[in-house]
Amino acid sequence: MAQTEHRSSARVPDEDRAAPPPAIELAGVAKRFRTVEAVRGVDLEVAPGEFFSLLGPSGCGKTTLLRMIAGLEDPTEGRVLLNGGDVTGVPAHRRDVNMVFQSYALFPHMDVFENVAFGLRRKRVPKNEIRERVDAMLELVDLAGDERRRRPAELSGGQQQRVALARALVNRPRALLLDEPLAALDLRLRQAMQSELKRIQREVGVTFVYVTHDQGEALTMSDRIAVMNEGRIEQVGTPREIYERPATRFVAGFIGTSNLLGGEVAEVSGGRAVISHGPEGRVLVPLRPDLTVDAGDRLELTVRPEKIGIVPERPGAALCGVRGTVSEVVYQGTSTNYTISTATGSDMVVFAQNASSADEVAARGDTVWLAWDPRHSYAIGALK
Q: 53 forms bridges with which residues in the sheet?
C-alpha cells in the first residue's frame, strides 16, 4: 500500500523571523556650518509606526537633524538610512518622507481640496483615485464639510495646520517629519491639536518624527523622546523614563521642574546612599546598578516637586527630610507652588495639589520640613 507524503507548512516561530529594519536610522551623523558644529556624532533609531520627538532648546540641532533626515541638508559625516536603505546624498524628492513646516506653506489661491490634492496631481494619479484619497484624508482630519472649498485665508490656524497635515499624509509617505507645526497656535488650540495629532498618527500608522522645544508637547504625544543639547543627544527614552529617571543634569533641569540636590555621602547601605543635608536633614537615595558610590563621595540627585510633602515636624527615619523656610507661595488653581529656602542655602520647589482644602499648607516665612519617599530620589551621578 503506497504511503502518501504529507507536506506541512510549519509556521515560523516569531523569534526566528527577522525583525523589520528601523524606519529611520542615523549612524554617526554630524553637521558643521563652517566653524559651527550643529550636530555632533548622533546615533539614533526610530521604529516603524513610532511617534518620536526630538526635544531641546533653540539652537540644539534638532531642526538640522530633521532636515538631514528629509534630505534638505547633507550630513558632514555619517549615514542616514530609511527602512534599511542608505539614502545619504539622495535628494529630498526621492526619499519616501514628507515634511510639515511651522509656516504650513499652503497655496493661497487653492481651496482646501486642491491644496491636499496637489501632490497627487503632480504624480499623475487618476482623478477617481485622487478624489477618493483626498476625501478620506479630509475625513480623517475633520475637514470633510464646507471647509473643503475654502481658501487658506478663510481658515483658522488650527484648520490650516490640518490641511498641511492632510496634504503631507495623502501621498502615503513611510515617515512624516514635523518641524514645530503647532508653534504658531495659541495655547488652548495647541493643546487640542496635540491630541488630534496623536489620534491621526495612531489611525494612519505612519512613523512621525516631531521637533519641538515644548516639554509638555513631547511628553503628551510621544512614544519616545530624544533630548538634545548642543548638537548631542543627552538621553533617549519613553516620556516616563525621561521624566522620572533623567540621565543627566541637563535632562533633569530641562524636562519639567526638578529639584537638584547634592552633598557628601555619609554612608552606603542596602543599595542606598545617605546624604546629610544641613544640620538636621538627611536624604536617602537608591543607587543605580551602574553607579558606584562610597562614603565621602559627593553625589547629585533630583526629586520632582509633586513628590514632596510639606510637614510641620521632622519626618521619620524611613523618609527623606529637609528643613527650610517658605520664601514664596504661588496659587495656580489646581496646585499651590511653594519655594523653600533650605538650611544649605539652596531653594526647593514643592507643588501641593489643591484637592481637599482651600487653605494654604504653609505661609511665607514659616519654618517647615520637606518629606518624601526615598523611591522618588533619583541619583544623577557623582559631583566633581
A: 210, 225
